[in-house]
Task: structure prediction
Amino acid sequence: MKYLDEYRQRELIEGQLEMIAARVRGRWTIMEVCGGQTHAILKHGIDRRLPENITLLHGPGCPVCVTPAETIDQAIEIAQRPEVMLCSFGDMLRVPGAEHDLLTARAEGADIRMVYTPLEAVALAKSNPDREVVFFAIGFETTAPVVATAVLQAESEGLSNFSILAAQVRIPPAIAAILEMKPRAVDAFLAPGHVCTVTGADEYVQLVERYRVPIVITGFEPVDLLQGIHSAVDQLERGKAKLENQYERAVREQGNSLARARIEQAFRTVDRSWRGLGIIPDSGFALREQYAGFDAVRRFRPGASAAAASDIYCGRVLSGTLKPVECPYFGSKCRPESPVGPCMVSSEGACAAYYRYADRRPAIEG
Result:
């Protein structure tokens, strides 16, 4: 059965490649937004099998990568307080701020813990009532519901020693920011299926209508991505612009109503700074006023810091105007074991994907 499944998948892959080659006439640039999509494209060599007049760009779909240096510096400053236990996802520990990272701060004595979910941080606050437990809340709309749940749980249990450093960001405003760049470099987008399972498709419909740009929601398997590329190319060749949902097995039009309700209850939308991209309007989540007591910035008042020197290149990679291999730091000064920028650190970073797969990846075969 496994052999038949793999055989059938290869048939579907070859069929999609043939249909794309037969359909494309113009020169088109398509951006996949999610870092998971980027890694799948590089791992399977999809970009090497496409017609040469189709260019794939890699967007700002890595929440670790877009967290600005100044926010990481705030996390470090908070973590260095003797009463604080700061909790973070593992990828964030090695992402550089303006001068150093959380891992360095931990080596210097700060109490910094790696967790897999913000609910672990709530549990630590409950079991350590004499410590201030801060969760460094990064992520797109996919992680926002569980962060909201953590805040609501902390409130219900009366945990006055729990707070979050909110760095949650939203994908649709980032797409809009890329489309506002002049000249426009992107003809169509592959939207992230996992984000859309939470949010639904409404905001993407608004982007299509406002900017007249095709957007196709896809999954992360080679067939998913190729079907999305084929759909985008077909729309472009016909001069059409609409939202298509290739990932119907997971994405519903209205998304996950419970997850959306949790986000709506705990958060409001705010302008948010993205590493290398600057402030994007309405692109972030911040706690509503009734939950302001759980806001670590209000509680600890960390100072401001400068942007990282590498951000000019990170921003260009994240906006799709620079390929990772075109960065002067790539593979020399910036490597996974000694990263200069976040795109080389994160498991979803475009630079990490190029470093891992670009020289060793086999093109998908028939």
Q: What stands out?
A: The first strand starts at residue 28 and ends at 34. The chain has a mean pLDDT of 92.
